[in-house]
Design brief:
By secondary structure, the chain is mostly helical. Helices cover about 55% and strands about 10% of the residues.
């Protein structure tokens, strides 16, 4: 989802370094530790984020407002998604997002969720990419073979895991590359 449907203004730790003068090498480990814990079902995220909040001297609400304020919907990709669905493609999101971020997206971008056939968020499923179960949960639910899926991600590690299962993968770089790639598949 992030890096594909959701554009951001760069890594959060780098934004914090610039805006708060706290080194990325100091804040990134705190964020990474919290993310590992909040991406699972029923995590109580407020206390998990506390070390980050204390270091930034921010409230829980202000922290997420700051974080998500650097993100925006990839409108062009959303439009292309509509076109693909009109051609009969099913669109599925597989994301390692956590409750606050997912709920923010659901509230801010309802048009995105109207164009998605299904969504799998790690905090709801318990499966975190690149764990193969993240992908097999989708494969096992549908009547498609792994090679009938096309998976885009901005993470090479996630792509490698999916590819080992026989899923067609592509590093998401931009909309034109995506269109070109899908076009070549349609012409095969």
């Amino acid at each position: 989802m992030n890096g594909v449907f959701i554009k951001d203004s760069g890594p959060l730790s780098k934004r914090i370094e610039k805006d708060f003068k706290i080194g990325a090498d100091e804040i990134y480990p705190l964020i990474k530790t919290a993310l590992k814990q909040v991406r699972v079902p029923e995590a109580n995220s407020r206390p998990i984020w506390q070390p980050v909040l204390e270091r930034l001297k921010m409230t829980y609400e202000d922290f997420f407002k700051y974080w998500f304020g650097g993100e925006s919907l990839n409108e062009e990709l959303l439009q292309y998604t509509k076109e693909l669905r009109q051609q009969g493609y099913r669109i599925i999101i597989l994301s390692n997002n956590f409750p606050e971020r997912t709920n923010n997206y659901r509230q801010l971008y309802p048009e995105l969720f109207r164009e998605i056939d299904e969504q799998y968020f790690s905090w709801e499923t318990g499966n975190i990419k690149p764990n193969p179960e993240s992908y097999t949960q989708i494969i096992e639910k549908h009547d498609y073979l792994p090679n009938e899926y096309l998976y885009f991600d901005d993470s090479e590690e996630n792509l490698a895991s999916a590819q080992k299962l026989g899923i067609n993968v592509r590093l998401y770089q931009n909309l034109q590359d995506t269109k070109n790639f899908i076009s070549t598949l349609q012409n095969v």
